[in-house]
């Protein structure tokens, strides 16, 4: 582990922009000396892999896929059922019992794409065809093409959930879908770092502790009227036995469908 005397303000940290990560990153954002980089989990994974970052909040699936990464064992982005920000949807005219011919995905979070692949494959017996797309275009593509599905994550999914025409879509919340299938919570993101240069779990725990004391303020700065409920009730940030069982179960499914 990193020696206690090391100057941790020199650490280059990758932080996720979405509201779901703000409690985890709040403490770090109060430390002006830190080198902070905001991006999607997918982009942060690439930066961490190339050595541009010392640690980053990345998709949990990348922690399972990459044995050269270590990760914080105590905190992450988790849910235990519906969370409103990982949404798979089809147009209202489509039948849920018929699999979408293709699914346009927001690839900002690779855990969400992998989770959808697992859930879809377990239901229909085959992996779906997934195509990355600009999240702002996904809903329109689903409507115009008629046989396609869509996957939105994070803030884009929260905005989608507020659409006035939401009744024109059939929507599945992936957190709820996973809970129904596995009776387990789900872990979407973890703090990762190279195994050759690990960081203490307490480093990340301290930032979360500060965030949890400031949930009201985090929610007040959000554009979403349900922000406080979202970060305090729909999401949770500490890993326990259920979350570890979920990661193991997820890894088993990924291996079974050759997605690791």
In short:
The chain is 42% helix and 24% strand. With 260 residues, it is of the alpha/beta class.
Structure notes:
By secondary structure, the chain is of the alpha/beta class. The protein folds into two domains: 8-80 and 186-248, Periplasmic binding protein-like II (D-Maltodextrin-Binding Protein, domain 2); 86-182, D-Maltodextrin-Binding Protein, domain 2 (3-Layer(aba) Sandwich), CATH 3.40.190.10. The protein contains eleven helices and eleven strands. It has a six-stranded mixed β-sheet, sandwiched between helices. Helix 1 links the parallel strand 1 (12-16) and strand 2. Helix 1 packs across helix 8 (201-212) and helix 4 (110-124) crosses helix 7. The radius of gyration is 18 Å and the shape is globular. The two termini are 27 Å apart.
**CATH-scheme architecture of the largest domain:** 3-Layer(aba) Sandwich
* Averaged pLDDT: 94
CATH superfamily of the largest domain, please? Periplasmic binding protein-like II
> What is the string of SSEs from the N terminus onward?
EHEHEHEEEHEHEHEHEHHHEH
Distance between the termini: 27 Å
Would you give the CATH topology of the largest domain?
D-Maltodextrin-Binding Protein, domain 2
Question: How would a textbook summarize the main sheet?
Answer: 6 strands, mixed
**How large, in whole angstroms, is the Cα Rg?**
18 Å
